[in-house]
């Protein structure tokens, strides 16, 4: 017999036919509730330092990098060191010549009094004894402390950063493997286009206007969904802002989502040979239409919520499916290998879609030249190699 839990009297209503018992959560439900946030090694926090005083103790190149990072956030960096490295000296000299002084050099060692009232304190010390004194001085006055390359004396850490400000991505391995964090950063840098910064800046300028013109939360959400649809399409053009504001001014709860399709040539089918532009297109897609030879590894670049549909063999049937999705305002990616047969299908589909007025773009894939070169180097010991006889390939990047 299943265990029952009594309902508290406060939850019972007079005359209610509700049973006086409730079933307890089963193990699966408990696991789902408990798994909303798994253990975190550190809390990722984005700190506003504009106009705030921060302390740097030390004049090394490592300290200079931390100072430059803090100054980029708008902090006023007070440097306490008798001597500065060449790089650090250059930063200070440029700052002194500018109207906004970001770096203030005090040519002496720091004192405990210097740390009082500072938003952050960063030190660079060779000995653990000096690091310990600096750490305790900061703790005593309530200033968060970080000692470079000495995790035991750090109340916070600096992660690897992908800067598309106001869009910022920070990666941390809790100090276990900084090289791994840097490798992750490089991967993210490659995926996020530089134009993301411009879209982020536009979003900052739009928020108050959208909130003023669209009253309901649902309408605002739909507006921003329409905005996000445009983010990975390229640099915002001169009409993008006007169109978005016009939609907001109408108070239309259905912000126009213009359907479009991108044809992605996946090269010979190796997921590691996909171009960055191809990966970005897949990640932005609502629907992915793929050929039978496209691997799961390639499809995994798309979002989890994107629909993945294997296309029919005939161009007219595929085009009919695409047209229906375009009418719904979907962002579609049509992906296939770069072989001759796939190229002919692409050309047929593109011709028909353009004739119907659809928004069509293409993403070239790599050629098979790398594979041919590998074959030439490994399988043909003498002489050249014969032309493989392949015809023109769709979207080949030569």
TrEMBL record:
Transmembrane segments: none
EC number of this enzyme: 1.3.1.76
Keyword list, A-Z: Lyase, Methyltransferase, NAD, Oxidoreductase, Porphyrin biosynthesis, Transferase
UniProt keyword Isomerase present: no
Transport is among the record's keywords: no
Domain Sirohaem synthase dimerisation: 198-231
InterPro entries the record matches: 4pyrrol_Mease, 4pyrrol_Methylase_sf, 4pyrrole_Mease_sub1, Met8-like, NAD(P)-bd_dom_sf, Sirohaem_synt_dimer_dom_sf, Sirohaem_synthase_central, Sirohaem_synthase_dimer_dom
Ranges where the Siroheme synthase central domain occurs: 169-190
Enzymatic reactions: precorrin-2 + NAD(+) = sirohydrochlorin + NADH + 2 H(+)
Sequence ranges assigned to domain Tetrapyrrole methylase in this UniProt record: 260-369
MF (Gene Ontology): precorrin-2 dehydrogenase activity; sirohydrochlorin ferrochelatase activity; uroporphyrin-III C-methyltransferase activity
GO biological process, one term: methylation
Top EC category: oxidoreductase
Pathway membership, UniProt: Porphyrin-containing compound metabolism; siroheme biosynthesis; sirohydrochlorin from precorrin-2: step 1/1
Domain of life: Bacteria
NCBIfam families, per database record: cysG_Nterm (TIGR01470)
Protein name (database record): precorrin-2 dehydrogenase
Organism for this UniProt entry: Phyllobacterium ifriqiyense
Organismal lineage: Bacteria, Pseudomonadati, Pseudomonadota, Alphaproteobacteria, Hyphomicrobiales
């Amino acid at each position: 017999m299943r265990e029952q839990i009594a309902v508290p009297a406060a939850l019972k209503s007079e005359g209610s036919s509700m049973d006086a018992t409730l079933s307890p959560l089963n193990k699966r439900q408990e696991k789902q509730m408990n798994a909303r946030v798994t253990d975190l090694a550190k809390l990722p926090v984005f700190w506003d330092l504009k106009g705030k005083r921060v302390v740097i103790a030390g004049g090394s190149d490592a300290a200079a990098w931390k100072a430059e990072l803090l100054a980029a956030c708008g902090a006023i960096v007070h440097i306490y060191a008798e001597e500065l490295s060449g790089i650090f000296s250059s930063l200070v000299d440029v700052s002194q010549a500018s109207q906004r002084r970001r770096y203030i050099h005090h040519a002496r060692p720091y004192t405990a009094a210097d740390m009082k009232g500072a938003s952050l304190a960063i030190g660079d010390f060779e000995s653990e004894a000096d690091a310990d004194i600096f750490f305790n001085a900061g703790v005593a006055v309530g200033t968060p402390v970080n000692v470079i390359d000495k995790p035991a004396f750090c109340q916070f850490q600096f992660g690897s950063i992908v800067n598309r400000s106001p869009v910022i991505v920070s990666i941390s391995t809790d100090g276990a493997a900084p090289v791994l964090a840097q490798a992750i950063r490089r991967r993210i840098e490659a995926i996020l286009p530089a134009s993301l910064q411009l879209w982020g800046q536009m979003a900052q300028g739009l928020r108050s206007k959208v909130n003023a013109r669209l009253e309901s939360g649902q309408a605002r959400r739909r507006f921003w969904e329409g905005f996000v649809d445009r983010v990975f399409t390229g640099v915002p053009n001169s009409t993008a802002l006007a169109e978005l504001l016009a939609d907001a001014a109408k108070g239309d709860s259905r912000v126009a989502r213009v359907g479009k399709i991108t044809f992605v040539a996946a090269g010979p089918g190796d997921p590691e040979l996909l171009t960055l532009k191809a990966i970005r297109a897949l990640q932005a897609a609502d629907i992915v239409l793929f050929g039978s030879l496209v691997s799961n590894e390639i499809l995994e670049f798309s979002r989890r919520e994107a629909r993945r549909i294997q296309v029919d063999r005939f161009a007219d049937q595929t085009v009919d499916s695409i047209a229906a999705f375009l009418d719904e305002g979907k962002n579609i990616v049509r992906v296939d290998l770069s072989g001759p047969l796939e190229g002919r299908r692409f050309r047929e589909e593109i011709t028909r879609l353009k004739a119907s007025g659809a928004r069509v773009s293409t993403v070239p894939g790599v050629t098979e030249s790398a594979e041919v070169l590998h074959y030439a180097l490994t399988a043909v010991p003498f002489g050249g190699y014969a032309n493989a006889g392949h015809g023109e390939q769709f979207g080949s990047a030569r």
